[in-house]
Design a protein that fits this description.
Chain lengths: ~500, ~160
């Protein structure tokens, strides 16, 4: 029989929950304190009202944190992971081991000193249950191993009961588990390139701007303005140096952030799973079962392409709607030339050739024509109202046309066996590799002008998390589009197979 | 040229769309009357009445007569042994192919207006996408729903 001991989380859970609430409260506290200020009304309880409220709520949070931690128990029974929790309403969640896709581990700063991990239980997550996952906020690594052991044992029991029926056929498979194999690691230089070319820099700047705008009332703007105007007068060189220094600092922060998040990034293959580990302060381990991967995308950001780099993203069935787990950055940065080796090792059946079929010349116009709808009135208005300089707005036309032509030239597609490759550009160039059995539905779209010119748009939907990712090649040859649809159509395939069977 | 799917949606669906159009036009009309009253009170120029009238008439023509007709003429579907094919769209003609093995579940739904006309809509869901056939006779919809769910076998390996 199975053990039915009920396990508790580590007490640090309570501390974490309090800290988390505090972190969420810090902005409201600051705003309230600054908004109210400390004014003297003569009555002390009015002066310190905000502080009293917050002090009181902190005590409440502390108590509820402890109760929540005390109430949270998990145990194993009937090949299920069972969890019981809840502050006022007792909730129970039973997750069968079969349904568990993977256990993801995170080690935060608070986990480290106690040798703890946060375990996120990822389930297959049918479309009906939006959140079947469970999260064990802090347990010891030994306890985490116990879960894995219980899971493995449960699976073994299942296999054994099968093998007894099937006359010991599958027993060997259980015994021979290949060791984990390292597929990909990131070097320090890669980390630098990743930090420099990612959106992190922009994020920090916008973060700083938002932060400053929040406190615009409090900050001595006028004084700063006077200082700055005086400063600018003091010489262009000094201003340039200052700007350079600021950019350097921002870059440094971005590098540091990337470094913390992606330090020691490794991709391993562990039997049937891809295991991704990363992080310095907060160590993360994500498991993606290979058969849950829906599509492989090579994304080439123009900046990265400049240095010969690209990144690889996979769409994963399961996980949240847009949260982590849907779209996974498999290789955050990798030399374009070095992409094939790790990908081929992970997905041997994938044909990683560049798609060769490009679009016909007559579909060029569709890539920029629609833009004229907004362009013409904008240009007309600008030219009229800002007469001499407004004429410069005519430069929008060549810009939009070349943008369109860039997209037209980037688009491509290819069918090879059971694989459809589509390439298209938003800002980054994306090459999507999809197996036929992973495509959920396919659509061909045509408007009146498309039909006249015999072009069509084809879009294929693959599951990504709870939602869908649509890969589409716009304005392609109508005939080719129909061929792709025919390739996708199961009936035709069945007919072809039927013919073959008859011949045999 | 690719063959069009065979089946059409119910002719009563056209009437339902017209009804929707009439209801929408009614609201546009209310707004137009509001504008007219304001123009009268504040003595705005007379062409406000003209513009309001033209908008209402154009709206009624497009949404009660023209668009439902085009939409209905365009709407076609076909449920074959191993796939479902849909064709629809007003300005953009969309042709969708859903393999049976991808179908997760089928729902029929019916609002008050559809119920009055003994119609129902069908929603076909795959793991990632939803597709709708808007108006079918209830019996036909029920039959189609059960047919699709028998044909749809959930493949083990794929999601």
């Amino acid at each position: 029989m199975m053990s039915k001991t009920r396990y508790q989380l580590h007490w640090i859970t309570a501390v974490m929950s309090v800290l988390r609430t505090l972190r969420e409260m810090i902005v409201p506290i600051l705003i309230l304190v600054f908004a109210n200020g400390i004014n003297d009304t003569g009555k002390w309880y009015l002066d310190y009202l905000t502080f009293i409220i917050f002090g009181f709520s902190i005590i409440v949070f502390f108590v509820t944190g402890i109760i929540k931690w005390k109430r949270y128990v998990y145990w194993f029974e009937d090949d299920e992971l069972r969890i019981e929790y809840g502050l006022f309403v007792k909730k129970k969640r039973y997750i069968p081991f079969d349904r568990i896709q993977s256990l993801d581990y995170t080690e935060g700063i608070l986990h480290r000193p106690f040798n703890l991990v946060k375990v996120s239980v990822e389930t297959a997550g049918g479309s009906a249950s939006l959140k079947a996952e469970a999260e064990l906020t802090a347990i010891t690594k030994d306890a985490a191993n116990v879960i894995e052991k219980e899971m493995a044992e449960a699976k073994k029991r299942k296999v054994q009961s099968v093998t007894i029926d099937d006359e010991f056929e599958e027993e060997f498979e259980v015994a021979s588990e290949p060791p984990t194999k390292k597929i990909f690691t990131m070097s320090g230089k890669d980390l630098l390139v990743l930090a420099t070319t990612s959106g992190g820099v922009g994020l920090i700047i916008s973060g700083a701007v938002i932060f400053l705008s929040q406190f615009a009332d409090v900050l001595p703007i006028e004084w700063a303005y006077r200082e700055v105007s005086g400063f600018i007068k003091s010489g262009l060189l000094i201003v340039a140096i200052a700007v350079f220094l600021v950019l350097l600092i921002i870059w440094g922060i971005s590098v540091a952030m990337t470094f913390f998040a992606y330090y020691g990034f490794t991709v391993q293959i562990d039997y049937e799973d891809i295991v991704i580990t990363r992080g310095l302060l907060e160590k993360k381990r994500i498991t993606v079962p290979l058969n849950r991967v829906q599509s492989v995308r090579i994304v080439e950001n123009p900046f990265r392409k400049l240095f010969g780099y690209a990144n690889v993203v996979i769409d994963n069935a399961g996980g949240g709607i847009t949260g982590e787990g849907a779209k996974i950055n498999l290789l955050p940065i990798v030399k374009r030339k070095a992409i094939n080796t790790p990908l081929q090792e992970l997905f041997p059946e994938l044909i990683l050739d560049e798609p060769t079929n490009q679009l016909p010349a007559r579909s060029k116009r569709f890539y920029y024509r629609i833009e004229f709808v907004w362009m013409v009135p904008v240009i007309a208005a600008l030219s009229y109202f800002f007469f001499p300089f407004g004429l410069f707005s005519f430069l929008i036309i060549p810009a939009v046309i070349s943008w369109g032509l860039w997209h037209h030239r980037s688009a491509a597609y290819e069918i090879k066996g059971n694989q459809l490759t589509m390439r298209f550009r938003m800002f980054s160039l994306q090459t999507v590799y999809m197996m036929k059995k992973r495509i959920q539905s396919m659509e061909m779209k045509q408007n009146y002008f498309h039909r006249k010119r015999k072009v069509a748009t084809v879009s294929a939907a693959v599951k990504s998390g709870m939602g869908a990712f649509y890969a589409q090649v716009k304005h392609m040859e109508e005939e080719e589009a129909e061929q792709i649809l025919a390739w996708y159509e199961p009936a035709r395939e069945a007919v072809v197979e039927g013919v073959l069977e008859v011949e045999q | 040229m690719r063959r069009q799917p065979i089946n059409r949606i119910s002719e009563k669906g056209l009437r339902v769309w017209r009804l929707y159009g009439i209801i929408q036009t009614f609201f546009v009309l209310l707004v137009a009357i509001g504008a007219g009253v304001l123009a009268y009170i504040f003595e705005w120029s007379w062409y406000i009445y003209g513009i309001a009238g033209i908008i209402v008439i154009a709206y009624a023509y497009l949404f009660v007569y023209l668009f439902p007709k085009i939409k209905w003429l365009r709407w076609r579907y076909e449920v074959r042994e191993s796939e479902i094919e849909l064709q629809h769209g007003l300005f953009i003609v969309k042709r969708t192919l859903i393999p049976m093995v991808r179908v997760q579940h089928v729902d029929t739904s019916q609002g008050p207006i559809l119920r009055k006309y003994n119609l129902a809509g069908i929603t076909i869901s795959t793991a990632a996408t939803n597709h709708e056939i808007p108006a079918l006779i209830v019996e036909e919809a029920d039959e189609l729903r059960s047919r699709i769910s028998t044909l749809a076998r959930v493949a083990d390996d794929d999601v």
